[in-house]
Each structure stands twice: as structure tokens, then as C-alpha cells.
Amino acid sequence: MARRESGKQGLSAVVGEVLFKAACPDCRARFELAAGALRLAIGGSRRSTFYSFTCPECGVAVRKPAGERIVELLTGGGVRTLRSV
Ligand SMILES: [Zn+2]
User: For residue 33, how far is its CA from the centre of ligand 1 (angstroms)?
Assistant: First the structure.
């Protein structure tokens, strides 16, 4: 996972970089993920609309249902969106 550290004398604010809080159902780790670490799939139904990420702690692939608000949040934060059928 790429975490951009801006070490240039505090010049660059972290504008535009959104971190999403997530937790792993497997190892129960809690962490923050950048938009690039998340994937959002939007399907025709609620069941095919979900987001997924890989747990940085145990490496398991996590998939969770995404409601309307989560979809808005993720797309607004620049998460890559896939259309699933
Ligand atoms: Zn985990």
C-alpha cells in the first residue's frame, strides 16, 4: 500500500487525499485506506453493489455491501468504480 509522505518542510497539505476507515472481519485489524486501495463495484441490485479491499494486516480479500451513502462517499473520494453485471 502506498502512503504518500510529504516531507518537504510541511509545505504540502494533504488536500485531496482521502483516507477511508475500514476494519477487517477476519483479523479484526482497523486501518485507514487511501482511495487507491479500494474498489467499488456498482451493479444493478444491492447485492451486486459492494466495495472491496485487501486487508493490509492479514492479506485477506474483504468484500462489503455498499449502500447509497457509501457509494457516494467512495466515488466522491476518488475510489475506482467498476460496473458489475
Ligand atoms: Zn485482516
Answer: 13
